[in-house]
Amino acid sequence: MDQDKRRNRAAAPLSERRALPTEQPPSPPAEPDAAALARLRAVFLEGRGADRDYWETEADLAAYDATFAQRIGWKWDHVLGELEHRGWRLPPGPVLDWGCGSGVAARAVLDWFGTGGVNGLYYWDRSPLARRFAVARARHKYPGLTVLEGWPPEPGLALVSHVLTELRPADLEALLAGLARAMAVIWVEPGTYEVSRALIRVREGLRGVFHLVAPCPHAEVCGLLAPGLETHWCHHFAAPPPGVFGDPFWGRFARDLGVDLRSLPVSYLVLDRRPPAPLPPGTVRVLGRPRVYKAHALALACSAAGVAEGELHRREHPALFRRWAAGDCPGWQVWEQQAGRILRATPLSAATPPTAPATPT
Length: 361
Ligand SMILES: C[S@@+](CC[C@H](N)C(=O)[O-])C[C@H]1O[C@@H](n2cnc3c(N)ncnc32)[C@H](O)[C@@H]1O
Known about the structure:
This protein is of the alpha/beta class. The protein has two domains: 3-272, 3-Layer(aba) Sandwich (Rossmann fold); 283-351. Helix content is 34%, strand content 20%. It is built from twelve helices and 14 strands. The strands form two sheets. Strands 1, 2, 3, 4, 5, 6, 7 and 8 form an eight-stranded mixed sheet that branches. Strands 9, 10, 11, 12, 13 and 14 form a six-stranded antiparallel sheet that branches. Helix 3 (34-45) crosses helix 4 and helix 5 runs parallel beside helix 6 (104-113). The model is unreliable at 9-27 and 354-361 (pLDDT under 50). S-adenosylmethionine is lined by residues 53, 69, 72, 99-101, 104-105, 125-127, 130, 161-163, 166-167, 171.
């Protein structure tokens, strides 16, 4: 089975909104190579990705593409769903997937937004094997699209996914200089403290070049850089497609690799030369999950006023408190507050209908 199809089909609510791929990949793994997956997992967990090119065979990429890459695809789906709701649209021009691995980031974007208006897909990776795999996979999946190895002269959209921990300072500097030529950038990473803090440094480096679309509800210096907030980080949680939990394929993967399928923390950054749709006053971006106590809950939230905790009292908002306690606390919300006490909280989706696409400047 095409692994993207497995991912998309499992995501029932999302699959209704997308054309499901029908092709088979060039080399569909009947069962991913367990030894390759264990080796790759050790490389990632031990942070050895910067040492050398770790893609040894095409089987490595096929096994990764069927498993780890699909989980990364779920994070991309989370980010792309938010962007769609914000009225964001693909910029015209070529798409570049930098540090592409098996190429899942670009496929997630094209599955979500379609290939119309995309005049070329470029895959770049330090590994020639990865570049070849990603190109072959995408050519097979999108037969009408020009798919090449390399950098386009002027990327419309540049994608970066799960590479920050593997980059040496000089690699990162060169990457940022290249990204500054794009119309828009979507960068998705694991939601760990170190990676989030590194992504904040990227944000500050590129803030003068682009508008900030997400997750930031403002364009000023990142609020987490304020004194006293050093222990916090900007992370969010993607939801795996519900079908995953009853799927024997994913059950085996979770058991054999010791992966918790429920946990998908994500840090991300979306930058665009086109201004984003304006947000209503009082918009906040909740970071992480609220801390729930007996009588109240505290949610760390970012807004134009900085990063601060909002306090929700059970007695005043019993139904909302129950939802937060059950894990249903939307990332984007509109709050009315008084001295940090939440008087009213509405999901941004309820506060604003989806907006028209932003127009290029
Ligand atoms: C963890 S994999 C992520 C692959 C893919 N972006 C994804 O999200 O599934 C990191 C990728 O970055 C590539 N990489 C690491 N350092 C790089 C560099 N300096 N230049 C280009 N690619 C690099 C690796 O070869 C690998 O394919």
